[in-house]
Amino acid sequence: MNETLLGLRLLFGSGRGNRARFALMTLGGSIGVCCLAIVLTIPGILAAQDARVAARQAVPPDRAVAADVSGLPLWLERTDPYGSRPLVRIFLARGTEAVAPPPGLKAIPDRGEVFVSPRLHEVLRTENGLAQRLPGREKGLIGPQGLARPEELVAYVGMSRGELADGLPVTRFGKREAPIPTVDPSTLDILRFTMVGIVLLPLAVFLSVCARLSAAERARRLAALRLLGMSIKEVQRVNAAETVAAAGLGALLGLGEYWILNQLFSRAGLPGFTWYPGDGTLSATTLLACLVGCPALAWFVGRTSARKAAANPLAVRRTAVEKPPSSWGFLPLIAGSGIAAGYCAAGITGHAPRDTFLPSLLIPSAIIMIGVGLVTTLAPLCRMLAQRVARSTRSLALGLAMRRNEAEPGGTLRVAAGLVLLVFAASLAQGVLIQLDQATRNSSRIQSYDIPYEELTTAQRQSLEQLKDTRGHVVSMQSSLVGASETAWSPHVVVATCAQLRAAVSWTGACADGQAMRLRGTGGTVGEAPQAGARFAVQLDGGHRRLSLTMPERSLPYREFPGSLVIDPESVLVPPSALPPGSRPANATFTLVSTSDPDVVRRVLDGIGHVAPTADVLPQGLDITGLQQIAVIKTLLAVGMVLGLVIGIGAYLVAATDRAVERRPQVTALALLGARPRTLRAVQVAQVVLPLAIGLALAVVVGKTAESGYLVTGGGAIFWDGAGLPLLLVGTLGVMAVAALGALPLVGRRIDPELIRRD
């Protein structure tokens, strides 16, 4: 305890400069803790949203004990795309038995009553066509406890029991888990890992920088205490007391900063992601990590940084030569880059790994090793560069800058490490977005909409056939070979005219209306096609009738639009006139086709919702849940990049300012020897920019390697992100420009001889 009190007394009683340094350490620590709290609360926000979605899920009766369910309310949920966002429509029909309403409602809506979320209420004012999907009149708003997030589009629609014949009986509302989480668990794992790379690794560097401000001056002060008779452990406790005090106060300030930011941004929202203020409440784990973890890190850094001064006090004197950094720092960078390069080579040679277990272990390990290696190689790499440049250059400014970097390579590490990790993380984040985007986007020129045929009445089907903005429609159904086993492959039957077929595909051969033809697509065969003349049958009118057909001899080639699959590659085209008048295909799918323009897709879905509001519509190639997850992931990654940018720039500013203050005696000595202020500024810029340029160039190279290795193991079609390279290079140049501008004002015009009096 005596050493701790001594450390605090030295802190507050050793001049204005030390108090300013303590304030800088505290402010830097508060920014780091605020960023850490933001990252740690993201999973809690997502879990709170999923819990509210689970609370509104209907629970059907237990079939084992249910006797009569005719009096229970009926429930049916439909999720449709509205642009790139899901629109959740929940249809409810009252029963004779009383059931508690879902969260956010006071009672189950009656027939014709519609309750909407606040955001959907605003959308309905500007999008009149959207009201077609909600048959009835708006009666009220859904409360926050019934919504995952403020921007969610949800509607409860009251229906009669006759209109909701295919609804499920409900005993209560509330399940343990949401059917579709806000972010898929596997995607959430990717997000967590990416956040570690783009936020937590730079954050550790930033907190270490803040804990080691004025390292040289503090080391000499600790060496003096050691020479006065203090033991090694006592000296380490004195130094740790100051860093822990700054980290503890910074942690409290950081949590206060987080509370303010949570209140502001939860009400304003972020693009693609909103939450309620209560969702961002700090958990006990987060509080423990911020209030205990950060001071513990400061304690460790403080004891480690004081070890040299305590063990060998004379080694930190002003004339002592600093020990050159070890070359072992290259090992993690070489190992991680080797793993990533191996997967890149596998992608180039066409041997991308199919097993996901081994890459899921090696790629994250490689990325972590590369991130650590970028930090550990900066000092020895910059020292090697400084030695070569200093021996060959004839420029006074460049020579002075390189000699200083050669004598003090650790200063370069503190200044450049945060920005180098930021550029590396930016490339990694691009790879994550590319992989997720490949899994959800529709790359085709057309958009198809599959609707179960049995869910449409004749009038509804005829209305959909005349729907505006559609190219055409087809009906596909399953068949079975006559006299063959049930497991034998049988062709799909496409009921359409030649004009309807041409509207659904990119190209067809010579098609003749009124004739059955075998369709030959370019996508290959599914199985052994039956020979011409083989008999197969289709089910009609709910399976009560069978229509026997003959496999035709004539073939019709066709080609799908790239990225789409409307027609099965081995199907039989049957004209509508071949079906008996008034019959309805069984086990069939009614498919509408339109262009893939987002506005057209929205209008078509509005039209389908108006004609058949309870129909289960499946837009092929359009994963609306995946698109919503992409929007959330993009927003969270953008938040992570902003935090990483704040941390990187903060680490640079803190370290550069601290380095400039520590170098004031050397700068003053050079000024007294006749060096001009312009030369001193050039020295300062060269000291920062050249090592930073080397580190950033290395970060771009290994970052693109790690990104490509990640994409190769992701199973997508894109391995090389050439489109993101110019943006990354522009960002790298911007970082260097900011670093150069930040170094200019750190050399002043005033000469204070007192700074070198002790030398």
What does this structure look like?
The chain has 759 residues and is an alpha+beta fold. It contains 19 helices and 20 strands. It has helices at residues 2-12, 16-55, 118-126, 185-211, 215-227, 232-268, 284-305, 307-311, 330-348, 357-392, 396-407, 409-440, 458-465, 498-504, 598-611, 624-662, 664-672, 677-713, 724-743, and strands spanning 58-59, 74-82, 85-93, 113-116, 137-141, 153-158, 168-169, 172-173, 446-452, 470-477, 480-481, 492-495, 507-508, 517-520, 535-540, 545-550, 555-559, 570-574, 588-595, 618-619. Strands 13-17-14-18-12-10-19-9-20 form a 9-stranded mixed beta sheet. The radius of gyration is 34 Å and the shape is elongated. The model has no long low-confidence stretch (mean pLDDT 79).
Tell me the layout of helices and strands.
Layout: H1 2-12, H2 16-55, E1 58-59, E2 74-82, E3 85-93, E4 113-116, H3 118-126, E5 137-141, E6 153-158, E7 168-169, E8 172-173, H4 185-211, H5 215-227, H6 232-268, H7 284-305, H8 307-311, H9 330-348, H10 357-392, H11 396-407, H12 409-440, E9 446-452, H13 458-465, E10 470-477, E11 480-481, E12 492-495, H14 498-504, E13 507-508, E14 517-520, E15 535-540, E16 545-550, E17 555-559, E18 570-574, E19 588-595, H15 598-611, E20 618-619, H16 624-662, H17 664-672, H18 677-713, H19 724-743
The number of E-state strands comes to 20
Number of helices, counting only DSSP H or I runs of 4 residues or more = 19
Distance between the termini: 35 Å
Q: Kindly name the structural category.
A: alpha+beta
Please state roughly what percent of the residues sit in beta strands, choosing from under 5%, 5-15%, 15-25%, 25-35%, 35-45% or over 45%.
5-15%
As laid out across the biggest beta sheet, the strand order is 13-17-14-18-12-10-19-9-20
Amount of helix:
40-55%
Radius of gyration: 34 Å
Indicate the overall shape: elongated
Largest sheet: 9 strands, mixed
Q: Give the overall pLDDT as a whole number.
A: 79
